[in-house]
Amino acid sequence: MLERDLVIVGAGPAGMAAAVSAYEHGARDILLLERDQYLGGILNQCIHTGFGLNYFKEVLTGPEYADRFIKKVRAIDKIEVSLKSIAVHLTQDKILTFIKPGAIQKIKARALIMATGARERTREMIHIPGDRPAGVFSAGLAQKLINIEGLLPGKVAVIVGSGDIGLIMARRFILEGAKVKAVIEIQKQSRGLMRNVVQCVEDFGIPFYLSHKISRIYGKNRVERVDVVKVDENLEEIPGSKFQIECDTVLVSVGLIPENELMEMAGTPSIPGLFVCGNASKIYDLVDSATRDSEKAGKMAAEYLRNSR
Amino acid sequence: MIKNLICIECPKSCALALDIENCRVVKVSGNQCPKGEDYGKAEIENPLRILTATVLCQGLSLKMAPVRTDKPIPKAKIQEAVSEIRKMRIGRVVQSGDILARDFLGLGVNLIATRECG
Ligand SMILES: Cc1cc2nc3c(=O)[nH]c(=O)nc-3n(C[C@H](O)[C@H](O)[C@H](O)COP(=O)(O)OP(=O)(O)OC[C@H]3O[C@@H](n4cnc5c(N)ncnc54)[C@H](O)[C@@H]3O)c2cc1C
Questions:
Q1: pLDDT, tens digit, for every residue of A53-96?
Q2: Can you say whether the dihedral through the CA atoms of A166, B82, B44, A52 is positive or negative?
Q3: What is the pTM of this model?
Q4: Do B70 and B21 share a domain, yes or no?
Q5: Which one of B49, B96, B112 would you mutate to disrupt binding with A, by most A Cβ within 10 Å of its Cβ?
Q6: What is the DSSP letter of A4?
Q7: Exposure check for chain B: N or C terminus, fewer CB within 10 A?
């Protein structure tokens, strides 16, 4: 079986920062796996500004931030990048299986960094009752459809949850010529940053309902309307507060969950030489902090390799 | 008159208090850095935003190229700028930072690509 010193799964900002830092701390045989056809991870679809203020002391968009690290990774010949390569299995001995076009490969990693990012929570996880029509999207998926695929997933949207992705998508929908009828948040305060409330919601006069929730979705084939109710301190529905909004799209922006299926597959919670960083370890609001922590993971992996020789 | 605003220059989201006389900001407080002062003044006298959007590519491996203005533009010009961007097409390889439209709409800013598109 092929053996590699360091295998990194995921080439978002976390995986790229870990790779560069592992190299800087002495690792010389690094394989960086990415299932997508590009490096950069979620940053490629985050075309808005707000990245890099701490790390680069500049205001960058997601793709610009990614570009800086892509250039660093590409400049180091000891980092082998394998695109369209999805890791599908992991054992306790750090034997990793991945699939790439035309091949299944098994490699034994002496050290391993998981930088697989996060996935979005879905409608199912917040239990919105009602019909199951087309037109309900997670906000990050809608972001990918618009910014990467150039497809507008709806014309009149209601946004559930005030996470940053939802707020950013409110503005994006409007700039693309769609309508946003409301942003609805069950808590008393916005979950997203105030700066996003200001420049994405207030700038466009979008009604922002705090302490409200969607209690039902209606629609035969496509979403037609939603019920909205006000909630009390205990998040219970206040009787008589119900009103309806007509829309063809519901965007759900209710948070992210670390993606670590491969580690669950391997079984034990702690495997010597396995490190986790970026959104796969905990959800970061700011990419700068994810980068910094991932640099530490890269350094630790390099040290582990040195000490285990 | 005192007006309260949230600064959007960075994630700190400072709560600014603006002292306004005759539509001019005479004093900004609550900011933790000089950017807050500039933002507070601009927000009352001529609100500005960096515009980010996408442009359709033709004959390239990417379908959409992300773009932005290299400096903020007046908020009032955003709709016009978006309509102009929607008409544009990119048919050649561009690098992140390449200028796609110089002095965009006569606003004294450039429209730049934010991702390498090959
Ligand atoms: C919509 C949105 C808006 C944001 N806005 C801001 C902002 O304005 N400012 C800011 O500082 N931060 C922002 N963030 C946060 C920041 O972008 C994240 O913290 C950061 O991108 C996390 O990086 P990551 O590398 O951990 O994850 P990702 O960028 O998600 O990268 C994970 C990578 O792993 C790959 N992968 C996953 N599983 C496998 C597998 N099995 N095999 C191979 N590859 C795999 C994925 O394809 C992906 O490329 C935002 C985040 C989101 C989602």
A1: 899 999 899 999 999 999 999 999 999 999 999 999 999 999 99
A2: positive
A3: 0.94
A4: no
A5: B96
A6: E
A7: N
